[in-house]
Amino acid sequence: MASSDDAKLRPLPNTAALSGVLEAFAFFRDPAFAQKRFKRHGNVFETSLLGQPMVFIQGGQAISDLLAQPNAVEGWWPESVRKLLGSHSLANRNGASHRARRRVIGQLFSASALQRYSAGIISMVKDLADELQAATTALPLAERMRRFAFSVIATTVLGLEGTDRDELFVDFEIWTRALFSIPIALPGSSFAKALKARERLLKRLQKVLLKASNGNGGLDLLAGGLDEAGIPLTDEDVVEQLLLLLFAGYETTASSLSCLMRELLLNPQVETWLREEIDGLDWPPAPEQATTAYDQVNAPKLDAVVSEIMRLTPAVGGFFRRTKCALVIDGVEVPKNRVVQVALAASNRHGAGDLEAFRPQRHLDDGCSATLLPFGGGERVCLGKPLAELEIRLMVVGLFHQLRLHLIPDQDLTLQMLPSPTPRDGLLTKVL
Ligand code: HEM
C-alpha cells in the first residue's frame, strides 16, 4: 500500500521524445534548451538525447536531494568520454576505488602543493602582462587564457617543459575533439584519431612520471599512492589520472578566465568598482602568501566577481550521475538506472531577481537566490577547485593591477557555449 509520502510523489514528466535526434540537435544548438523545458515540465523532467534517456534537474531542492543520497547514485559519463579517459580513471570508478584514487590525486592540490606552484603561476601572469604591454597589435585574450591554463597543468603540475609540453598539447587537442562524439573507431574518424592520440599521450605521461623525482612540478607528491586494497597504484593507473587532470582542468579554467575578462571589459562600471579593491592590493604577492593574498577575506569584491562569472557562464554546464535504485528528487520519483544531469547553467538562473544580469555585488549585498555549485558537489566535487581559484585570482589581479585593457571594436563577443563558454572572436584586446 502506498504511504502518505508516496501519495504526494509526482510521476516523472517526460518530453515524449522517442529517438531523441531532434532533442539532441536542440541540446547542442540552443543554450536555453534546459531552461525552456524546465519552464514547461518543472524542476525534474526526462527526455532522450540520441536514444539516451536523460533526467534533467535544477534548483536547490532537487540538487540537494540528489547529493544527499550518495549511495543511491554513481558517476556517469557518455561512452565516448568513458573510453577516451580509460577504465582506470577515477572519473569512471565508484565506491572505495574512486575514493582511494581521489585521496592520491588530491595531494596535488593540497595547501602546500599550491604554495609550491605559486611562483611558477605568478611568473606566467607576469609574462603575459609584459606581452600585452609590448604588443603593437590586438591580442586574442581567450587564446592566451587557454595557453596559460594548459601551461599551469602541463608545466607547473606535471613538470613538462618545451617541446615535450608542445607535443603533449598537439595530441591533447586531437583527443579533446572526439570527447563528445560517436564512439565508433571507423578508420579516419575523429574517434579513431583520438584513440591513437590517447596512446601517445599515455606514453608521454608515463615518461613524465618516471622523471617525477627530479623535483619539477608536483608529481613526486604521488609517490607511494595506494589503491583501495592498500596496494601501490600501478603507473598505468596513475597516468590515466593525469590524463583526467588535463581534461578536467584546462578548458574549464580557460573558459572561466575568458568569460571573466569579457564581462569586466564589457561592464566598465564593474571594472572600476573592482579596481578600487585591486589598486589596494600588493602585486605580486610573496609566493608563500599567494594562496590567501586575494581570497574572500582579503579581496571580497574579486571573490564576488568570480562567483558571479561561475553563476552566469559556468564552465561546466552540467554534471551527471546514474541512479542505482529509485529515488525521490524534489517530489518526483526517478526510477532505477536513469542518467541524471544536474543542469547547472539553467539552475544558476533559476530563482528570484535579476538573474540574467552580470551583477557581482549580489554576492556581497543580499546574497544570491540561486543554488550555486560551479564545482559540483558531494563525493565527486571538483578536485582541482583550489588550483583553479588560485589561477583565476592571480591572473585577474596581475593583469588589472598593471594594465588598462580595452576591447577592439567590431568583433563578435557572443559566446560559443560548447564545450565551455568562450568568446567567438577570441576577445581581441589591446592595452590603452
Ligand atoms: C573553473 C575551473 C573548474 C570548474 C568550473 C570545474 C568544475 C568541475 C565539476 C562541475 C566537476 C564535476 C563534479 C561532480 O560530478 O560533482 C569537476 C570534477 C573534477 N575536476 Fe574540476 N573544475 C575546474 C577546474 C579543475 C582543475 C584545474 C582541475 C585539476 C587540474 C580539476 C579536476 C577535476 C577532477 C579530477 C574532477 C573529477 C572528480 C571526481 O570524479 O571525483 N578541475 N570539476
Automatic annotation (TrEMBL):
The Gene Ontology biological process annotation of the record reads: sterol metabolic process
Q: Which residues bind heme?
A: 382
To which protein family does this belong? Answer: Belongs to the cytochrome P450 family.
InterPro entries, per the entry: Cyt_P450, Cyt_P450_CS, Cyt_P450_E_grp-I, Cyt_P450_sf
Q: What is this protein identified as? A: Cytochrome P450 enzyme
What cofactor(s) does the depicted protein rely on?
A: heme
The source's superkingdom equals Bacteria
List the Gene3D superfamilies hit by this protein, alphabetically.
Cytochrome P450
Q: Which organism is it from?
A: Prochlorococcus marinus (strain MIT 9303)
Q: Which Pfam families match?
A: p450 (PF00067)
Tell me which PROSITE patterns the record gives.
CYTOCHROME_P450
Origin organism lineage = Bacteria, Bacillati, Cyanobacteriota, Cyanophyceae, Synechococcales
Listed A to Z, the keywords are:
Heme, Iron, Metal-binding, Monooxygenase, Oxidoreductase
The GO molecular function terms of this record are:
heme binding; iron ion binding; monooxygenase activity; oxidoreductase activity, acting on paired donors, with incorporation or reduction of molecular oxygen
